[in-house]
Design a protein that fits this description.
By secondary structure, the chain is mainly β. It contains five helices and 16 strands.
Length: about 400
């Protein structure tokens, strides 16, 4: 979710610790003890100032054993309202990473959040790579209550005045992908389970919307997915060059405990192309195809900055985007982005479906050079005057 992109910004603006010293404990001889202690202090002093450019940098702090950070969360998703929370995260550099190839670091965390729509959630997550990045694991467990504006599927009745969909959920996702020999190609399984108890606000003043009776009450999605991914990005946080492309094929089955049987196919393509040493371009194609008996809240939707979540849904979605970023002063950079897409129920309806667009701009600060981790803000606009701003940590395109 987008709220996870906010967890580091306030750290940049407010953290003022100058260093942390680690010391050895016992030595037989007092004189030797003092020498060793002084030497260890010099070695393990953690600075928030990068020696290469004298700028604020938290890479060393994140990489130390004690580098566990409690960090404020800022939520700016227009579909659920403004809110906040707290996350505690730990990032550890992969010991096999090199300047030429930055391998996926290990990331762990817990979080809790709430918004003005009485949406709230708590959860834990972990991402780990094993055996020289031959195996990548990702796991999430979360409990959420989501109160979201629901527009139906291109419903004229709800377009101007959406209903409030209340979802009381449990969610878990477990993923393991394996590198194919020494290539950048990965393949592996994923399992996700989503259990919810839903209710919709009063519809007395509106016509009955087909399919709404299936949303009310308890339902579940139990999905097994096969993932095929090619990933040659130079880093996972703010890629400057490389590709991330692939396809996932998921099946939600009543045999596994799902309420409905349906397929979800998701081909995608992300390309990062440096224009110069200070200017970088990125390109995105993303699509989803749902086949079968899909619940309304599970239908694919257009996911772009500035577009409220679940605002434009259909059995199929397609979108394209581009983003450009350029350094303007030391670690500070500016970025701009634009995109468009469609949500539709059948390929015969593609021409009649409305184009959904987004555009916007923002800024970034390179907060951790060793991880290429940039943080900042984006301001985005879309159809019908919709506007949103986002606290961004790393890339806005996550796959």
């Amino acid at each position: 979710m987008r709220f996870l992109n906010a967890i580091l910004l306030l750290f940049v603006l407010t953290f003022s610790v100058q260093g942390i010293l680690a010391q050895d404990a016992k030595e037989e001889n007092k004189k030797e003890h003092k020498k060793k202690k002084d030497k260890d202090k010099e070695k393990t002093k953690i600075s928030l100032i990068d020696s290469t450019d004298g700028a604020l940098d938290v890479g060393e702090f994140l990489d130390m054993p004690e580098g566990i950070l409690p960090i404020p969360v800022i939520i700016t998703e227009p579909a659920i309202g403004y809110g906040g929370g707290l996350a505690v995260i730990m990032i550890k550099e992969n010991k096999f990473t090199t300047p030429e190839k930055k391998l996926q670091p290990n990331i762990s965390g817990v979080f809790g959040f709430g918004t003005q729509s009485k949406t709230w959630g708590v959860g834990i997550f972990h991402a780990h790579s094993f055996k020289h990045d031959k195996i990548r694991y990702t796991g999430v467990l979360a409990k959420t209550t989501i109160n979201i504006k629901f527009y139906g599927v291109r419903s004229d009745n709800l377009d101007a005045k959406p209903v409030l969909l209340k979802m009381n959920n449990w969610f878990t996702m477990q993923r393991v992908i394996f590198r194919i020999k020494d290539t950048d190609l990965f393949i592996g399984p994923q399992y996700s389970y989503f259990q919810t108890k839903n209710s919709i606000d009063s519809l007395l003043s509106r016509p009955v919307i087909p399919g709404f009776e299936k949303i009310n009450g308890k339902s579940a999605i139990s999905m097994v997915t096969l993932l095929i991914q090619y990933d040659s990005r130079d880093n996972i946080f703010t890629p400057n060059k490389g590709l991330s492309t692939g396809v996932s094929a998921g099946y939600s089955s009543t045999f596994l405990g799902s309420s409905n049987d349906y397929w979800n196919i998701n081909p995608y393509f992300l390309a990062y192309i440096p224009i110069s040493k200070k200017v970088f371009s990125a390109y995105r194609f993303d699509s989803q195809f749902a086949f079968g008996d899909v619940l309304l809240y599970a239908k694919p939707f257009i996911e772009m900055r500035g577009v409220p979540a679940m605002r434009y849904q259909g059995n199929y979605t397609m979108l394209v985007q581009t983003e450009w970023r350029g350094y303007v002063y030391r670690r500070w950079s500016l970025n701009g982005f634009v995109g468009t897409g469609k949500a539709f129920d059948d390929f015969a309806d593609f021409n009649d479906a409305n184009w959904i667009y987004d555009y916007g701009a923002g800024f970034r600060y390179l907060m951790a050079r060793r991880y290429d981790l940039n943080v900042g803000m984006d301001f985005a606009w879309s159809n019908n005057g919709d506007f949103a701003f986002y606290i961004q940590v790393g890339t806005a395109w996550n796959k």
